Amino acid sequence: MSELLKIDDLKKTFTMHQSDNKHIVGCNRISFILNEGEFIGITGRSGAGKSTVLKSIYRTYIPTGGSIVYRSEQFGSIDLVQATEREIIAIRKKEIGYVSQFLNVMPRVTALELVTATLIEIGERSNDAVEQAKHILAHFKLPSSLWDSYPRTFSGGEKLRLNLAQAMVKRPKLLLLDEPTASLDEASKIAVKDMIIQLKEEGTSMIGIFHDLDFMETVVDCQYNLSNGSLSGGHSN
């Protein structure tokens, strides 16, 4: 298998300006390789730094040190730590998806419009985009009665299902999953698992963080544990 992502000595610290510039370590000395088509799962207690790793890859956070070398279809081999904002925006648009427990959308955009716009942005025709959006919303058990509603009125589980639909519908090259089954019922978890398996078969590589270890072990190829900001493990399932 060929490398898609190589993280070497990644570090992220936060400066607390209200506390005499105190430094808090989000993650430190993080190194691992993600191969094409592989799914790496990361476990650890709350506050261990799992989300910090994902947000550093997505560049929501700018790392303090280290490198994240990603093989991009648009830019070739690129260090996401050093990449420009223009490059990051282009990579997010077409290559990297991110699923969070939290959903931030424009207040007057419906669920269907949100997913449809994601597809149009990557080049799908309008009519095709609408049909694909309806299909994936149904897959994630979001009732059709909510498709024309504003997501700000949704429950936590409904927002997460919409977030999954929006990220997965463009079938990204790399998908980052931050607690993808939080607040989901069993039927919705099955829908998530089915989509993960489908995307893996189509070549999507993934990194996910989990508290639901039983679910994680059914989908990942390799596991790491994050403790006190540092990574250990790397055993295969």
TrEMBL record:
Molecular function GO terms recorded? alpha-D-ribose 1-methylphosphonate 5-triphosphate synthase activity
Going by the UniProt record, its keywords in alphabetical order are: ATP-binding, Nucleotide-binding, Transferase
Q: What is its EC number?
A: 2.7.8.37
In this chain the ABC transporter domain maps to 5-237
Q: Which InterPro entries match?
A: AAA+_ATPase, ABC_transporter-like_ATP-bd, CP_lyase_PhnL, P-loop_NTPase
Looking at the UniProt entry, the stretches that span the membrane are none
Is Transferase there in the keyword field?
A: yes
Family membership: Belongs to the ABC transporter superfamily.
- PANTHER family under this entry? ALPHA-D-RIBOSE 1-METHYLPHOSPHONATE 5-TRIPHOSPHATE SYNTHASE SUBUNIT PHNL, LIPOPROTEIN-RELEASING SYSTEM ATP-BINDING PROTEIN LOLD
**Official protein name in the record:** Alpha-D-ribose 1-methylphosphonate 5-triphosphate synthase subunit PhnL
